[in-house]
């Protein structure tokens, strides 16, 4: 029996067990115990039947071969009496075989040939018989040396002996393999049952590795997912199923871009100044409310409305303490810079950099979502249910529900989903329903906690404003904003000095984004530096022009983002950039008055004149090689070109953020 057959059976059992576990991971917590019992009994019965079938393979094989050989001999005897025991040469043996029905027909169609016996015993005999027939000369010599008659009867029985012994050995190996898989299966069930008893299982999630899976347990999106599922069965414990989310996180996964999933904290962020302690609210609907007016360095209560970037770390802002109430937005510039986001530089302007007491108590485990991630979360996510968010009143608290990637409408029927206009009471959900049908299945609730202006509170219980990690301009920062009849994500913002809610996310620190870059045209040049980066990383893309091409600009969504061949930026989401190159022979001479070069042709001195500010002046030869570079802020300048050899050159000027080119002839 081929070793590959054993391996295939082994992998098939593992795959089936993996798929079963995967399916189980999509169930509600209340369904796990029943499913575990049914699965264990069903699995045990199937394995017992499989083992019973395997143990019968040797005896069934022997019975079939004995019966089959008798039928073959009977047919040959009827055609030529005494021929089955007569000595013959190879030609005679082949002639008899040609006259008889094919050996495999007798065996495969035998009434005793069950599936396992046909697969392992009979087919192995047929294989051995064919090997014997293909080596008749050597086998005739072997029979002669052993003093045996080279007859049909002796040949068929000899092949039988060569078959039964290996089949018996292979059967024992197969029994061991199946028994091992059975033990592994029961171990998984035991661990699962123990996890259910301890309350550790609610839904299938993975932390540290991100996957994109649907409610359909039989739809595997990629090879990586399949490998993880196989490891699930082999190890008995799994990151897709029985692993708990990070401490303080709700057990649900949310896609924030095409490749990354995160989980949300169990509640809004809170702070106690007297003990310098950060924590998450006990319940998702909890908020402090009017007590935020007591904000001060000595206050021994809790607050949950914070000025933008008030993480408590001295990152460079004037007002960085959580109790800060200074007015004017310039007091809240992250890292002391008007343009910096929370994740820039050290990342310490983000509240998630703190050790959260009930969120693992480890620094830099949590973070604030960016505006692009919130936009993707609310509007772009493609998930099986198609339901991303809904307005609701949960436990009599108004707010916004976010549904995880694997949400199913079977858990709870919501109305007016993916719509920010309805009133909150469009969906009224009790505390019991929330815990059993929503939170148990990974849903998130953002309460309408209002916001704070110095020590004055506004719109508590009516509106919600949640900070993002991004600046909007010198006065505002982006914020998720919802009110009774509206939702603003991409266009939501708030004064940096306002006290707003904070809801953090985590994914074990793995926040990676793809930075994609392509040359235009493809033959124009090469790009270096594209790939996968973590949020907050510096990414430097370098465009190298090929011969007879000159770099022109970097664009994104047809908008110029840089005219420098080396473009550096801080990663805050996925980007798709294009490096534009221009063929030296296609430089347009019909430019407007923004850019003049004279005299042209020239001998030694040229004058560069522009109606705008020239930030960079470059001279390339027609092979695309840079031969002169001047960085200056001018509107008119004389350039000495006497060192250039005679020929045609390309002048590239960056004027007010736009790259313009002209041909220059040196005589």
Explain the overall architecture.
This protein has 667 residues and is an alpha+beta fold. Helices cover 29% and strands 25% of the residues. The strands form eight sheets. Strands 24, 25, 26, 27, 28 and 29 form a six-stranded antiparallel sheet that branches. It has a five-stranded mixed sheet with strand order 18-16-23-20-21, with no helix packed on it. A hairpin with a 2-residue loop joins β9 and β10.
Put the structure in a nutshell.
The chain is built from eleven helices and 29 strands. The protein is α+β, with helices and mostly antiparallel strands.
Secondary-structure map:
Layout: H1 3-24, H2 32-55, H3 57-79, H4 90-99, H5 103-108, H6 115-134, H7 136-146, H8 152-197, H9 223-235, E1 254-255, E2 261-264, E3 269-272, E4 277-280, H10 371-380, E5 389-394, E6 397-402, E7 428-429, H11 431-438, E8 444-447, E9 451-453, E10 456-458, E11 464-471, E12 476-483, E13 486-488, E14 493-495, E15 505-506, E16 512-520, E17 525-528, E18 531-534, E19 538-545, E20 549-556, E21 559-562, E22 566-570, E23 575-583, E24 595-598, E25 605-621, E26 626-630, E27 634-640, E28 647-655, E29 658-666
Parallel strand pairs: 5-7, 16-23
Antiparallel strand pairs: 1-2, 2-15, 3-4, 5-6, 6-8, 9-10, 11-12, 12-13, 12-14, 16-18, 17-19, 19-22, 20-21, 20-23, 24-25, 25-26, 25-27, 25-28, 28-29
Give the N-terminus to C-terminus distance in angstroms.
84 Å
Rg to the nearest angstrom? 38 Å
Shape: flat
SS-derived structural category: alpha+beta
Number of strands: 29
Mind summarizing the main beta sheet? 6 strands, antiparallel
Number of helices: 11
Helix content: 25-40%
Share of β-strand residues: 15-25%
Low confidence ranges: 196-243
* Average residue pLDDT: 77
């Amino acid at each position: 029996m081929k070793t590959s057959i054993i391996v295939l059976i082994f992998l098939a059992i593992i795959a089936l067990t993996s798929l079963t576990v995967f399916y189980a991971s999509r169930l509600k917590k209340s369904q796990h115990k029943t499913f575990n019992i049914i699965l264990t009994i069903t699995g045990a019965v199937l394995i017992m039947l499989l083992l019973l079938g395997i143990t019968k393979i040797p005896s069934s094989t022997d019975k079939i071969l004995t019966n089959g050989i008798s039928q073959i001999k009977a047919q040959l005897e009827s055609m030529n009496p005494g021929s089955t025991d007569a000595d013959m040469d190879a030609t005679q043996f082949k002639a008899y075989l040609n006259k008889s029905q094919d050996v495999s027909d007798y065996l495969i169609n035998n009434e005793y040939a069950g599936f396992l016996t046909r697969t392992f015993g009979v087919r192995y005999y047929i294989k051995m018989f064919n090997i014997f027939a293909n080596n008749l000369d050597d086998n005739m010599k072997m029979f002669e040396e052993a003093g045996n008659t080279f007859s049909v009867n002796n040949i068929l029985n000899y092949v039988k002996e060569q078959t039964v012994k290996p089949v018996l050995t292979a059967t024992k190996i197969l029994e061991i393999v199946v028994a091992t898989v059975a033990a592994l299966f029961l171990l998984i069930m035991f661990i699962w049952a123990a996890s259910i008893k301890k309350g550790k299982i609610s839904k299938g999630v993975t932390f540290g590795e991100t996957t994109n899976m649907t409610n359909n347990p039989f739809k595997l999106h990629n090879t990586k997912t399949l490998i993880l599922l196989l490891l699930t069965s082999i190890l008995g414990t799994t990151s897709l199923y029985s692993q708990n989310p990070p401490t303080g996180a709700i057990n649900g996964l949310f896609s924030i871009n095409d490749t990354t999933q995160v989980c949300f904290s169990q509640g809004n962020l809170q702070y106690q100044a007297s003990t310098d302690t950060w924590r998450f609210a006990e319940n998702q609907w909890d908020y402090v409310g009017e007590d935020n007016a007591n904000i001060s360095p000595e206050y021994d209560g809790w607050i949950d409305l914070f000025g933008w970037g008030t993480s408590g770390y001295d990152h460079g802002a004037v007002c960085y303490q959580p109790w800060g109430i200074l007015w004017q937005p310039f007091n809240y510039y992250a890292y002391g810079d008007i343009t910096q986001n929370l994740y820039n530089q050290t990342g310490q302007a983000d509240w998630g950099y703190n050790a959260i007491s009930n969120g693992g108590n480890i620094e830099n485990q949590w973070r604030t979502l960016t505006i692009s991630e919130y936009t993707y979360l609310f509007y772009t996510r493609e998930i099986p249910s198609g339901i991303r968010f809904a307005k609701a009143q949960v436990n009599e608290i108004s707010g916004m529900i976010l549904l995880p990637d694997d949400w199913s409408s079977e858990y709870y029927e919501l109305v007016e989903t993916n719509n920010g206009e309805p009133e909150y009471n469009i969906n009224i959900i009790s505390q019991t329903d929330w815990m059993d049908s929503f939170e148990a299945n990974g849903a998130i609730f953002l309460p309408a906690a209002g916001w704070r202006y110095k020590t004055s509170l506004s719109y508590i219980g009516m509106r919600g404003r949640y900070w993002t990690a991004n600046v909007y301009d010198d006065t505002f920062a982006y914020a998720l904003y919802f009110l009774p009849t509206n939702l603003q994500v991409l266009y939501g913002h708030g004064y940096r000095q306002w006290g707003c809610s904070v809801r953090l996310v985590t994914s074990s620190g793995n926040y990676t984004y793809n930075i994609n870059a392509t040359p235009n045209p493809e033959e124009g040049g090469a790009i270096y530096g594209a790939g996968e980066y973590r949020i907050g990383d510096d990414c430097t893309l370098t465009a190298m022009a090929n011969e007879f091409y000159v770099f022109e600009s970097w664009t994104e969504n047809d908008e110029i983002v840089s005219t420098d061949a080396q473009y550096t930026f801080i990663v805050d989401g996925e980007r798709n950039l294009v490096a534009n190159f221009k063929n030296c022979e296609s430089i347009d001479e019909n430019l407007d008055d923004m850019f003049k070069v004279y005299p042209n042709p020239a001998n030694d001195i040229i004058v560069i004149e522009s109606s705008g500010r020239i930030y960079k002046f470059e001279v390339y030869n027609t092979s695309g090689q840079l031969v002169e570079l001047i960085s200056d802020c001018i509107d008119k300048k004389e350039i000495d070109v006497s060192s250039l050899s005679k020929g045609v050159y390309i002048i590239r000027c960056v004027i007010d953020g736009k790259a313009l080119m002209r041909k220059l002839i040196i005589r």
